[in-house]
Each structure stands twice: as C-alpha cells, then as structure tokens.
Amino acid sequence: MEQYIIRGGTRLYGEVEISGAKNAAVAIIPAALLVQGVCRIENIPQISDTDTLLTILAELGAKVSYVSKSTIEIDCTHASYQDAPYDLMRKIRASYYLIGSMLGRFGSAKTTMPGGCNFGVRPIDQHIKGMRALGAEVDVRGGFVYAEARDGRLHGARIYLDKVSVGATMNIMIAAVLAEGRTVIENAAREPHIVDLANFLNSMGADVRGAGTDTIKINGVESLHGGSYSIIPDQIEAGTYMVAAAATGGEVLITNIIPKHLEGISAKLRETGTSVEEYVEGILVKGPSELRRINLKTMPYPGFPTDMQPQFGVLTCLAKGTSVITEGIYDNRFKYVNELRKMGAEIQVDGRVAVFEGGRRLTGALVHACDLRAGAAMVIAGMAASGETQIEDVNYIERGYERFVEKLNALGADIRVRYDEEDMRQGRLLSSF
Ligand code: UD1
Known about the structure:
By secondary structure, the protein is of the alpha+beta class. It has 2 domains: 3-19 and 233-425, UDP-n-acetylglucosamine1-carboxyvinyl-transferase, Chain (Alpha-beta prism); 22-218, Enolpyruvate transferase domain (UDP-n-acetylglucosamine1-carboxyvinyl-transferase, Chain), CATH 3.65.10.10. The chain contains 15 helices and 23 strands. The protein has helices at 22-31, 48-59, 86-89, 97-106, 125-133, 166-176, 192-203, 235-247, 263-271, 309-318, 337-342, 372-384, 395-398, 404-410, 421-426, and strands spanning 3-7, 13-17, 35-42, 63-68, 71-75, 108-112, 136-141, 144-149, 158-160, 182-186, 207-209, 215-219, 224-230, 251-255, 275-279, 282-286, 295-297, 322-326, 346-350, 353-357, 366-368, 388-392, 415-418. The strands form 6 sheets. The chain has a 4-stranded mixed β-sheet. It is globular, with a radius of gyration of 21 Å. The structure holds uridine-diphosphate-N-acetylglucosamine. Uridine-diphosphate-N-acetylglucosamine binds at residues 23, 26, 93-94, 122-127, 163, 165-168, 189, 306-307, 329-330.
C-alpha cells in the first residue's frame, strides 16, 4: 500500500490554490447523463472519485475528454442503458447519484449499494423514498439497487425528507429535472454543492428553484441541452489548508475560495486564536503561538461541517485546555482518535462526544488513514508532530484531495510518497482520461 512519510515540525508558509469542490463534482458528473449534448465542465478536481465516475460514464457510452487539466467535456448524447462497472460503483459513495441520473435518463437503473467512507451505518432510505415518490419501483437485493419508472418516465411529487440529507436532496433533484410535472423537496439540505448542482442543471436548461433553502422546487422539462459550467471551489479542501496553517503555526494565503462558504470554519479557527483575514484574492490564515481550546458540534450547513471534524480534532490536541467535540451527523466518526493516541494524544470518546485533553506534544508514529478526512487529519497531525510519521492507506486521501502532497510540500511541508510496487506495475487509475 502507498504511504506518506512526513517529517514533522515545519511551519507552512506561502500560497495555495483550492481545486473544484469534490462533493459538487461527484453529483454534476452523473447528472451530465441527463444532457443531450456536450457539457463543458471547468474546475473539475483531479481526484480518484471523479476519475471513477468518469470511467463509469464512459462505460455507459459517454464521450469524455479533457480539454485541460481541470476542464472536461462530457457528451452523453449516445449513452445507453447497460450494466455499469459495479466494482467501480462499489468503491465510492457518490455512485448513488447514478440511481437518479439513470432513472431520469433511461427510466431504469441498476447500481450497487454505495461504498465510501465508513462512519457507521449510512442508509440510503431517503433516496429510495424520493425515487418511489417520483413513481419508481425500487428494490434492494443482493447488494444492488434496482429501480424502474413505472410507466417509463418519472412524475413530479412532493417529498418531505425525514432526515436532512445532502445525497438524497441532490439525487432527487437529479431524478426530477426530466420528470413530468413539478417536484417539491421539503426539509432539503442547503450545502453550497446543492446550489452548485442546481446552477449546473439550470445552465443546461432545467428549472430548479430554491436550492440553498430547505424547500426546492423542480419543474420538469422535456430535455436538457449542452452548455458550459464552472464548479465552485472546495470548501473542505480550503478548510483543511486553513487548519494545517493553524496547526503548524504557519501563514498561508488560500486562493480560489468563496469566503461565505468558509464562515463556520473561520469562526471556529478565530476562537482558537488563529488569525483569519479575508482579502480579494483569498483568505490569509496565521497560526497563533499558542492555540486556545474550543467546543464544537457538527451540523448540516450552515452549521459546522462534519467533514472538518477530524482536522479540528487534531487542532484541539495541540490547543491548551480541554475541548469537547460533538458529532451531530454520524454515529461513528471518531475512529481516527485511536491513531492520534498513538502519537501521544489524550482523548476520551463516548458515543458521539469526544473530549480532547489538549496541550500535548504529538510525536511521529506509524498510523492509518481511516477514511478521507481522517486521513487528511493525520497528515496535519504528522506535520505538527515532532519526528517522523508514516501514514498507511493514503488512497483514501487521494479520493478527495487534488495533489495534496505536492501542494503541502510547496508550502514547506516535508512529505514523501512511498509508492506501492503493485500499483506502479499496474499503472494507477488516476488520470486515465
Ligand atoms: C455527503 C458527503 C459527505 C458529508 C455528508 C454530510 C458526498 C458524496 N458526501 O454524504 O462528505 O460528510 O454529505 O455533509 O457528497 N441518512 C439517512 N438516510 C438517507 C441518507 C442519509 O439516514 O437516506 C443519514 C446519514 O446516515 C447521516 C445523515 O443522514 O447520518 C446525513 O447524511 P447525508 O447528508 O445524506 O450524507 P451523504 O450524502 O452520505
């Protein structure tokens, strides 16, 4: 397995440019299946999750080409219903968007149950409830989801989500744009990537209103046409570099961001004594000489994002005093604390609450990336620690961070990648287009 070897104790200085938002891209790529014509999509992050989805679309008959490193053209005009590569679907969470896009385009879908990071049970009952309300028969058996529009096309419906779910909100939006009539999603999630998906769909001819509020209205249209769209910058990637700057006592200008999307993260960082200043070209983060303790609770947007929880966990290990983090979204998102304990952290976990006894010096150790964001957190811990940290299973990190090691090293980090020989022999999946 590929590993990162980090020599800790260096402060990060300089400027880093943020890539396109992963969680927007992984919905927009499957949504391109609805479009008859060429979708030109800019600011696509080059990460393995987007690469996997592009490979799946290509298998369904889409023409996919890179215009530049971050701009692609997808033409699904001649895509047809067929078995998709299930081994690829199983790898990623966002494959659930193929249920909505295949149903919308073909009136049928067969996908695997989604993969992705394991934070405990991650059901898709709200997705299924939405598809059923739109007139699909949905059956889950043998690890697959089978869905079929009862009369070949979906029909608009009023859908109340029992849980605020990012994935269910976006999946229902995707399925509903070509449905007959009007769909209303109530208790919808409001994350920036939901607005981004709506903007993408509207720029291709859809009629989606209210994205960013808890009620989204979709008036079905007969077809979508090609067009150009640029994906928003990644809120979580930006937040990760902000925490990395704070944790190492460095000074980093983070560019290509939307400051509004970072408000919750900036507010919490300021509470730790970190300076966060907004400029036209980006946000400047300066770590303090001593970090202060904080309490935080993760919540749906505009609350504090769960995807920043592990990175802040590292920060609270370094901060003076006792910090309490409450996970408001997932049942089991504190697995990474075991890895931090190997580095000298003192953390007690009781269900969804973790108590961090801060002010400890972290020391390098052999640790494991439990999932995407936990992996990024371990990289931050390794940079802040003394000595050498080896991180295993870093393929998780590469699912969501474009050129992570390269960007961090350009800021002064000391990270080497030890490649897996088998991967090298077979050629890596990333950038197969
Ligand atoms: C998405 C993001 C993930 C982020 C999460 C919350 C993608 C690909 N992933 O995941 O990075 O951590 O939003 O911001 O965009 N739930 C149900 N039934 C459902 C759906 C969800 O009970 O049908 C529950 C989940 O178990 C969880 C909560 O609702 O407790 C929120 O999940 P959701 O917002 O759907 O997260 P994902 O779409 O899986």
